[in-house]
Amino acid sequence: MKAIEQIAFVILIVAAVACNNNKDPHINHNTEAAKQMYTCPMPEDSVLSDKPGKCPKCGMDLIKMEQDNHEQGKVEYTCPMHPEIIRDKPGACPICGMDLVKKETGSKKVGDVELEALLKPTNEFVVSSVPVTTIIKKEEQIEIEALGNIAYDTRQTGSISSRVAGRIEKLYVRYRYQKIKKGQHILDIYSPELLTAQQNLLFLLKNDPTNATFIQAAKEKLLLLGISNQQLQSVIQSGKPSLTIAVYSNYSGHIHEAASGGKMNTEPGAMNDISLITEELSLKEGMYLQKGQSIFVVYNPDRAWAILNIYGDNQGLIKIGNAVRVLPETAPGKDFSASIDFIEPFYRKESKTLSARVYFNNSSLKIPIGSQVRATIFGNAKDAYWLPKDAVVSLGLDKVVFKKINDGFKAHKVNTGIIYKKNIQILNGITEMDSVAINGQYLMDSESFIKVKN
Q1: Letter string b/e over residues 280-306, b meaning 16 or more CB atoms within 10 A of that residue's CB
Q2: Who contacts 123 (Cβ-Cβ below 8 Å, separation ≥6)?
Q3: Which label site among 193, 258, 269, 270 has the fewest CB atoms less than 10 Å from its CB?
């Protein structure tokens, strides 16, 4: 009997040990699942380890990784009003009593943005929640602001030249911008050539008065040399040659010395420089003149033009005949209306702008030559597709917008036209169905990071 009891006791001990051995693997499995992991503080090293130590790449101490208490894809339940309440099965909220709702856990999405979108290269895709806009087709009445200045109308410019070589005996004008009238006596000139021509005429009249052909030829020669009909009749009546011949102006206006070489100074910029000073003429009595030399240039201040500077982005909007409102800065009360009469077919060296001329009558306005003006040019209406100017980013030769795609924006190339106020014309690249970021500059980190596709 004792032997049977001992055998039964041994059997019980073996069964207990077997039961304990069956539980240990489960406990060890849970411990293995919750095993602590370590990583390098530098994320670019991507080092993982199951024990503390040094990073094999940078040598820094490895740090503990945060444990994720929820398995990927595990279904949990939470309260709509109290998100801190989390359960692994349905039920009621212990705070408010509402039914718990299903909550998906895991890392498939971050917020509302898919993870694959976040992993796209930053030069191709931008995640943002900036406002969007679309292109709008409308007609804009174009008004362009321009600056300029008043200049002489060179179509009204006259030149006083010497028809013979000679010496200035008397000069009747003394300073630049002296106002003269048509027919005014300018100077007296002594010329051996004129003296000889007068003597030839008087000789013919005295010794061969019937030779009408030679006498008429002698008179015409004197007229071509610059002598007036009145002076010619005076020589014939007196029977004596005049030692000096008067030179008269054929124009009215302001007088200037002619440029060297007999060329007229018609550059508005050069005239503005001359207008800074008013000094006596360098031409003096006793100086000699060459035949054909231009002595003076006469500008008429009653005929002027406004030269307006047009910048590159507005040049396509300007046409001959466009209405203009001109406001002189020196006389704000003398604004006047006119039209574009001429567009210069070249760029000025100093400003790199295109110049448009507005002709006007200055006889009553009396606006000083060289003064600055502001002008409003009323261009033609433009019917086109428009976007806010800030929505388009310039990359030099290319223009891009950030087009809305799913949960982010992608740089997209567009062709643009004119810029008017805060809008820019879109020629092609996007349609009315496309949404683009209203401020493209906000999404651009660096121009070198943007990659666009046509």
Answers
A1: ebebeeeeebeeeebbbbbbbbebbbb
A2: 449, 450, 451
A3: 270
